[in-house]
Amino acid sequence: PAENLGFHQAQTTCWDHPKMTELYQALADLNNIKFSAYRTAMKLRRVQKALRLDLVAQSSLAEVFREQELQQGEHVMDVVEMIHGLTALYERLEEERSVLVNIPLCVDMCLNWLLNVYDSARNGKMRVLSFQMGLVSLCNADVQEKYKYLFRQVSGPGGLTDQRHLSLLLHEAIQIPRQLGEVAAFGGSNVEPSVRSCFRLAPGKPAIEVSHFLEWMSLEPQSMVWLPVLHRVTAAESTKHQAKCYICKQCPIKGFRYRSLKQFNVDICQTCFLTGRSTKGKKLHYPIMEYYTPTTSGEKMRDFAKTLKNKFRSKQYFTKHPQRGYLPVQSVLEAEASETPCSSPKLPHADTHSRIEHYASRYVNYPATHIQPLQQRLPCSHHSLTLYSSPRPDRSIDLTVL
C-alpha cells in the first residue's frame, strides 16, 4: 500500500511526505521553550493547523467514524481503511465549512502523522482507538467534550470503564507526546500509575463512570496535561492584553500574559517567559499568574490584593505553602507487569529518550496519593525546568516552576 501514500519514492525509503518533513523541521524552532507541557502543546498546535484539523468539528468526526463503521476501538484498521476514513473526513470538511481543501495533500499529511504516532514500523495497521485518539485530540472541540467522547470509546454498555480499558485509552494518548520525543516529561510510557490515580476517585470499585474520569482530568494529571494546555495555547493565540512586557517592552502583550503576584506591575509576554529571557537586574519572582484571555476589572483587583498579601509574606511562608502543581505520576519505569499494550516500534530518536526515562527514574519516586513538593517532581527531558499550573474557572492559571 505504500504507493498509495504519495510519499514512497522508488529505490529509497522515505516515510515522510516532503511537506511533513518541512513541518517537523519547523517544529525545531520551538525547542527553546523551557517548559515541556507548553513546548509539546505548541508543536501540536502547528501539526493541528498543518493537517487542517483545527477546522474539523468533533461531530463531523463522530459521523465519519459511524459511516465508515469505525466504532470498535480494538478493531485493527489497514491503510486502505484509514485513507477512506480521512478522505470522507476532508470531503465533509470542504462541504460543511465551504472552504477549499487540498484533499489529497491533507489525506497524505494526516495519514503520515497518524502512522508516525501509531505505526512507526509501517506495518500498515493501527487500532481504531488509535485512529480516533489522534483525530479527536487535534479536532476543533471543547476539551471537556473530547474527554467525554474518548471515555465513551472505552466504556461498556453501562457507561463504565475498567482499568484495562482505561489503560488502553491512556496508552493511545501518551503516544502523541512520545512521537515528539517528549514522553519522559509526562511520566514515560507506563500508564499504570495514572490508571491507579484515576481509580482512587472510585475507591473499591472495579470500574469508573465518566464523572470520575472528568474529575480526574480536571486535575490536569501529568500524563495528560499537554491536551488542556493545547486548548489554552489555542485560546491565547488571538488574545491581546493592554500591558507592557517587563523584559522586552512589547505592548500590547499578545498571546499568554504572565503576571508576578509578588511584585507590582510586572507583566511578562509569552516569548520572554516561556524561553526564560531576562534583563540584567530584573529577576522574576513567584508565584505567577498566567492569563490566556483579557483580564477583567475583578481579576485585576483580585491580583492586586494577592500581590499586596504576598509582599508581607516571608520566604519561609512560600517554602511551607508551595503552589499546587499538576497531579504527578510515579516513576517513569515503574512496574514491569502491565496490562498496557506494547508501545509502537521506536522512532530513530526513541532510544535516546528511553535513556532519558531511565536517568530520570533514578531521581524520582512519586507517591501517587498526593501532590508532591516542587523539588521532587520529574525533571524535564531536555531542560532543567518544567511548567506546572492549576486550572482555574476564571480563565487564568496560577503558576509555579519546578
UniProtKB/TrEMBL annotation:
Protein name according to UniProt: Dystrophin related protein 2
Membrane-related topology note: Peripheral membrane protein
MF (Gene Ontology): zinc ion binding
GO CC annotations on file: plasma membrane; synapse
Domain ZZ-type: 240-296
Gene field: drp2
SUPFAM superfamilies: EF-hand, RING/U-box
Main subcellular location of this protein, as a coarse class: membrane
An annotated GO BP: synaptic signaling
Localization: Cell membrane
Keyword vocabulary terms for this entry: Cell membrane, Membrane, Metal-binding, Zinc, Zinc-finger
InterPro entries: EF-hand-dom_pair, EF-hand_dom_typ1, EF-hand_dom_typ2, KCMF1/Dystrophin, Znf_ZZ, Znf_ZZ_sf
UniProt key word Nucleotide-binding: no
PANTHER family noted in UniProt: DYSTROPHIN-RELATED PROTEIN 2, E3 UBIQUITIN-PROTEIN LIGASE KCMF1
